[in-house]
Amino acid sequence: MSSSNKKPQTDAFVNNGFQNWGKALDKSKGFDERLQSQGHILAASNFEVYQQREGTQQNVIQ
To answer: What is the Cα–Cα distance from 46 to 52, expressed in whole angstroms?
Structure first.
């Protein structure tokens, strides 16, 4: 699929939750699609950094 055909990225999943549970496990929709979204990738990265800081008792302000 070309980038011009992709849906625009939004935070709808975060803001509104998941509504269509019938499509949740569909490979081209639902959770698998969410895993590939920029919003999910950023959130997962931020959470990993958070976990690392918690494990070492580090914070941003030192």
So the answer is: 10
Q: Rounded to whole angstroms, how far apart are CA atoms 62 and 45?
A: 22
Q: How far apart are CA 34 and CA 39, in angstroms?
A: 8
Dist CA 56 CA 46 (whole Å): 16
Looking at the chain, how many residues does it have? 62
Residue 2 is given by DSSP the state: -
Q: Give the pair of three-digit tokens for residue 14.
A: 């975060």
Look up residue 59 and give its DSSP letter.
-
Give pTM, 2 decimals: 0.52
pLDDT digits (tens, 9 = 90+) for 7-41: 555 666 677 776 777 888 887 877 888 888 888 89
For residues 13 and 41, is the Cβ–Cβ distance under 8 A?
A: no
